[in-house]
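Before a computer can learn anything about folding, someone has to put a protein's shape into writing. The three-dimensional part falls to structure tokens, numbers that each stand for a local backbone shape. The protein below has been through that process, and both of its lines are reproduced in full.
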Amino acid sequence: MLLDIKSGHPETYERVTHVSLAPTLALAKHLHALGKPVWLRFVLVPGLTDDRANIEAIADLAAPMTNIERVEVLPFHKMGEYKWEQLGWHYLLKDTPAPSSELVEATKHIFRSRGLFTP
């Protein structure tokens, strides 16, 4: 099962997704109770999800879940920006840069420090 968690802080999660973090956490706990193998995915967006406390909150939520087989840190990119333009929608992340390789590695380190596997 692939499980995306955009944020470990409810306020940030709601700002990013416009929905509550609670259902995602409930699903994560349910999958853990079932022992269902999970790959956790986290999109690292500079200025939006890259706050260290946010990343640590996700890692702390995931660390006790023995069914988490892998954590993928997905660096933000703008490959889908053209879709927004084609739809005539304002792309809010237009000026957002890709995260530096140092930030990506620091993020992976946070997950690894909690015993979570990141490639």
Notes: The longest strand covers residues 68-75. The chain is about 45% helix and 15% strand. The CA atoms of residues 15 and 110 lie 23 Å apart. The chain has one domain: 2-113.
